[in-house]
TrEMBL record:
SUPFAM superfamilies: Prefoldin (SSF46579). This is Prefoldin subunit 6. Pfam families: Prefoldin_2. Keywords: Chaperone. Gene3D superfamilies: 1.10.287.370. InterPro entries: PFD_beta-like, Prefoldin.
Length: 87
């Protein structure tokens, strides 16, 4: 029985590590996109990939979307850290 509980604990730790890794990578990618958007002129064309199609997007909207994603991912990382400590 003890080994079964230990195995479940290891699986839980592994799952949480995978989630943190995914969110950390996404956070880095989104921070890079935000930096690249900051380098562009206000009148630059920005496109968003939606499925197989590139759709033109307003610069302000693109900035807002990326900032919102960064905020969400950061919150998920904090939440995941709290869940790991609690368990």
């Amino acid at each position: 029985m003890a080994s079964s509980a230990g195995l479940r604990e290891l699986q839980h730790i592994s799952k949480n590590h995978q989630i943190r890794k995914k969110y950390t990578i996404q956070l880095g990618e989104n921070e890079l996109v935000l930096k690249e958007l900051d380098l562009l002129n206000e009148d630059a064309n920005v496109y968003k990939l939606i499925g197989p199609v590139l759709v033109k997007q307003d610069m302000a909207e693109a900035n807002a979307n990326v900032k919102k994603r960064i905020e969400y991912i950061s919150a998920e990382l904090v939440h995941n850290k709290v869940v790991v400590r609690w368990n």
